[in-house]
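Here's what a typical entry looks like (Nucleotide-binding universal stress protein, UspA family):
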Amino acid sequence: MKNLLIPFDFSDVSMNALDYATKFGSKCQKATIHLLYISKSKLEKDKENELKSNFEELLEKYQGPGAPPISYYFRTGNFSDAIVDAHKSLDTDLVLMGTSGAEEGAESPVTRTSRLVLEADLPVLVIPVSHKYFKLDKILLALGEDVMHDTSTLNLLLDVSSRSEAEVDVLTVSRNPEGAGYSEADEINENTLQYYLEMFYSHHSFAENEDILQGIDDYIKKHQVDMLAIMPKTHSNNSTPSKGKLTMEVTLKSDIPVLVLD
């Protein structure tokens, strides 16, 4: 993992994401952090010069032994499109994006972050603004009940876990857990996890809960999980992609960083 991309606008949310990224990036040898400022329309020259000055001042604060190099860029246009374009042109491995989560009582709690993870086909690490520290000893992969046929996304999970030597727990929450852990799909997934995650794979747990998100949250709190990993699609041959309700809820409500494997 050599290149990390952060949508950045000097807000508390993006500053918190940058703080996390510098610590996360220090685990990646020679990793570069790219800050991306996105505006809907072309910036006036005075505004662009002001932003450049702010960026240069910011970068000075993050210099020091072992600190990852940081660069900054400007893009104009649609938010998600600009990120996808920068992700390709800068050859980044992962997008880190801060979020303030859903506002309490909001009827349609959609944020730029939750929209991005649904619209863009790229891996995103979502950092809640309330998460103020870096610790990565345990990762939880929330897995569905289908057989994983597209296993390529597990490579990123292995990369992240191996750099911090974090163990990976796997959890499947079912509304009807009868026989969970003994089906043919469970056995196939077990072999896949052992193969792709190597020594960092810990174990696969099964839980019953009508509320899938609550079941995941209960496990996180009980086992002191530092990062949640999810797959926004089923990655199954014979099923249609998930419409993303669970993915959106997780990115809006999680208190810990969420690695969206896509």
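The chain has eight helices and ten strands.

More examples are in the samples folder.
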